[in-house]
Amino acid sequence: MSDAADADFRPHRRLRRLLGPIFGAACLLATLTGVVVLTVLMGAILSAAVSGPPHAPWYDLGAHARELGSLVSRLLANRQSSDPSAAGYHVGVIGSLWLLALVATLGIPVGIGAGVFLEEYLPAGRVRRLIQTNIANLAGVPSIVYGILGLALFVRAFGVKGLALGPSLLAGVMTLSLLILPTIVITTQEALRTVPPSLRQAALALGATRWQVISGHVLPAALPGIMTGTILGLSRAVGETAPLLMVGAAGSLLRAPRGPLDRYTALPVEIYNYAKEPNREFQAVAAGGILILVVLLLSMNAVAILIRNRFRRGR
Amino acid sequence: MMTRNEPTPPPNAPAPEPDAWGGQSRISALAEALAPVLLGVCGLITVLTTVGILLVLAVQSLEFFVKSGVGIGDFLFGTVLKPEASPPRFGILPLVWGTFLVAFGASCIALPIGLMSAIYLSEYAPRSVRGVLKPTLELLAGVPTIVYGYLALLLVTPVLKAILEPLGLRVEQFNALSACVVVGVMIVPLVSSLSEDVLSAVPAGLREAAYGLGATKFEVSTRIVLPAGLSGVVASFILAISRAVGETMAVVLAAGMMPQITLNPLTSVETMTTYIVQVIGGEASYGSPKYLSLFAVGLALFGITLTLNVLSSLVLRRYREVYQ
């Protein structure tokens, strides 16, 4: 190697060696922003929730836990009120539980069914590609557009009186079911794809019919993946606010719904109403509601991720 | 489904009919026939959802244009949005401007952070660290958007005020910058997880060849892996922008409801999603031009996000490097 070429390389060597770790550290910092955000989020919400007058020193964790416990139980027991000390989420929590249960019985089976149909029955070809593209695009539609759909189709039924559901629980459930449909279909399909074809062939060779193969062998094998998608979809449905505002979840409601045709409100909608109050006294109320919602949703998602990771490792 | 009846055919029984093999009992034969029909209906619902969205937006927007007498040009390019004035003015340019101001600001935060964390997870992270960080980022993606909106009110705006007001800048209670921050933080997990999938899929042979030629880790990451996965990274960027455009609750709580065309991110702006929420929360009666305008704005929003999503999948498909 000539001296000139050697001199060309040498000056940069130290810089090049140095740049790698520096860049790596910067990338690590960027990755940690996620963790930092999660910590700051919980910290800010916790401190806003327990900033009541009787201030214990910060290290008195027992007192804070007790205060938090009494705040949450108070919020769960009280209904909406214009008085911050008497305000709570009783009706909203019950409404959200209704939504959760009805979406699980109405929306989830349809999503799983569509996934099974696309993966197991529909032959590959132009129709299947078209439906697949359609589902991928539906997954990217903003949630508020689903709210507009629900408003015109379910709540108003284009002005046809007999069909219109009004701002009822059922209209909200149908809107949310359509909203999570793409998620459920896509995760169901992915789960079905992981089932080895040999399983199907073995069952078919023993004389099982198509439906027997699917219901008896393929679906049980794909169950963990489908469960993950289902839980993720349900947690998304519980956390959504914008579509429910569109389909008329009531701003203030003092009576919990008794059936699918009653008026309703939901936890995130009530949080929104408290959060936009200019009165700062409502901050603790809103923070407490967020705390209930975040703990509920994060534990649902954690369960879903755990199921999936265990399932992946098993294969 | 696993019914097991022992077939005990009489000695001279006629041969079973050719189509009787569908099941030993009537019920399972019925299930066999009904299953594809019922599942097909489920599949049809996904198609009908798209049809429903298009139909609702098109019909109601048409009604809006007919009833209000606003031309499509005035609607798309009008710079004044005053639905209450007489005559009402429906120019959605301020809304589009606000939407893209927030989306642009959010991208400035989310795209570099998301890309760098994708590079870290796929190139630098040891297996154990990755096993902890990846689920955490996924968990972050499950936080509902209303929480981010509340975070803007509770934390981001006060912090911005504390930093910028001493410098002589006026920060409004509702401002575009805090919306940019929270929406940016919100879409980081989307960028990082999609990009990471693509970068991890780059074949190890490429990396090994570069290392063999004496490249450093930085050079391998930025000059080999990143260009190889570029189409996927760009596709994830476009998807993230689309998500920021369609984001509602965080923006409603953070950015306020003041439709104006401004470059100052410290003032309040109004996005398309915010306008829709504002109309539905207001007193506009059903069928009035103001009420119907939410469908026209919804149609424009749907058009923008659909274009971005299609563009994203086109980029992914057209410019993908295919490895054996």
Short description:
Chain A has about 325 residues and is mostly helical.
Explained architecture:
- The complex is a heterodimer of chains A (about 325) and B (about 325).
- By secondary structure, chain A is an all-alpha fold.
- Chain A is about 75% helix and about 0% strand.
- Chain A contains eleven helices and no strands.
- The radius of gyration of chain A is 26 Å and the shape is globular.
- In chain A, about 45% of the residues are buried.
- Chain B has about 325 residues and is an all-alpha fold.
- Chain B is globular and about 75 Å long.
- Chains A and B meet through helix 1, helix 3, helix 4, helix 5 and helix 6 of A and helix 1, helix 3, helix 4, helix 5 and helix 6 of B.
If interface size is counted as residues with C-beta under 8 Å from the partner's C-beta, which chains form the largest one?
A-B, 94 and 94 residues
- The CATH superfamily of chain B appears as MetI-like
Shape of chain A: globular
Structural class of chain B: mainly alpha
Q: pLDDT below 50 for ≥5 consecutive residues: which ranges of chain A? A: none
